[in-house]
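=== RUN LOG ===
request id: a7f3
mode: sequence -> structure
chains: 1
length: 74
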Amino acid sequence: MDLPTETQTGLEAEAARRGVTVAELIAQIASAFSDQDDPLEAFIGSGSSGRGDLARRHREIRADQTAGLSARDL
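=== RESULT ===
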C-alpha cells in the first residue's frame, strides 16, 4: 500500500503495540468494518417528526411543504 509516512508510522506503532504485523493489523481493521451493518441504520428511528403518516403520504406532504418554492429556495 502507498500510504502517507505519518499513517505508515502510526500503523507500525500500533502493530508493534498489539504484537502483530502491519498486514495483520490492516486485516483486523478491515474485518471490523466489514462486520458492521450499514452505518446509517443506527440513525433509523432516532428522531420523531410527530407525524405517523409519513410512510403513506410522503409525496403529498413534501408537495405541501414545498408548494410555490423553487429549487433555489430549498
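=== NOTES ===
Helices lie at 5-18, 22-34, 54-66.
DSSP finds three helices and no strands in the chain.
=== END ===
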